[in-house]
Amino acid sequence: MAGYKLSETELQQALNSLPGWQIKEGKLYKEYKFNSFATALGWMVTVGVHAEIMEHHPEWFNVYSTVWVNLVTHDNGNAISNLDIELAKKMEEIYSS
Amino acid sequence: MAGYKLSETELQQALNSLPGWQIKEGKLYKEYKFNSFATALGWMVTVGVHAEIMEHHPEWFNVYSTVWVNLVTHDNGNAISNLDIELAKKMEEIYSS
């Protein structure tokens, strides 16, 4: 899925509704902290199911109870797209549930 | 779990039985390729269950169908221990099953 590249304004608006997310090296980035490895991995699995449904996947790094996430749309010239925002929102929703 | 630090000889012997694994920046490293994101994540979950049982966890980075793994024992002065070898062997076993 390619999505569409967000304008600077659209990106800023989206970031306002995504606490803890920032732009880092051209990617949408957040560090997620959990209270255990099992909780972190469980969150990754639930997010993973949604990533499969969306056909849009994260880049993520896990060490014990921390997951560092980078979202970018490779099919779209490595820009941040609406799909990255959608996936970030889904991650937030699952994290707070 | 702290495990025990491996001697140079023990480490070399262990590496001989771990195809594709190498020492990289003081950690036991391997790049795993899968045929899909779902297969990669499924492998991570199965490995994760064993990591919990062992009380010893990997550092891993996933992008779509690739997982880069680093194993090191933080409780043991950031050295490679018998626990890292044990976890690597478990990863191989699950990967080839």
What does this protein look like?
The structure is a homodimer of 97-residue chains. Chain A is α+β, with helices and mostly antiparallel strands and 97 residues long. Chain A has a single domain, classed as Transcriptional coactivator/pterin dehydratase (Gyrase A, domain 2), CATH 3.30.1360. Helix content of chain A is 42%, strand content 22%. The model of chain A has no long low-confidence stretch (mean pLDDT 95). At the A-B interface, α2 and β3 of A face α2 and β3 of B.
CATH topology of chain A: Gyrase A, domain 2
Fourth-level CATH superfamily of chain A: Transcriptional coactivator/pterin dehydratase
Tally of discrete structural domains of chain A: 1
Q: Give the structural class of chain A.
A: alpha+beta
Query: Poorly predicted ranges of chain A (pLDDT <50, ≥5 residues)?
Result: none
- Strand tally of chain A is 4
Instruction: Please give the radius of gyration of chain A in angstroms.
Output: 13 Å
Largest interface: A-B, 16 and 16 residues
CATH architectural grouping of chain A: 2-Layer Sandwich
DSSP summary: helix tally of chain A: 3
GO molecular function (chains A, B): 4-alpha-hydroxytetrahydrobiopterin dehydratase activity
Catalytic activity (chains A, B): (4aS,6R)-4a-hydroxy-L-erythro-5,6,7,8-tetrahydrobiopterin = (6R)-L-erythro-6,7-dihydrobiopterin + H2O
Keywords (chains A, B): Lyase
Protein name (chains A, B): Putative pterin-4-alpha-carbinolamine dehydratase
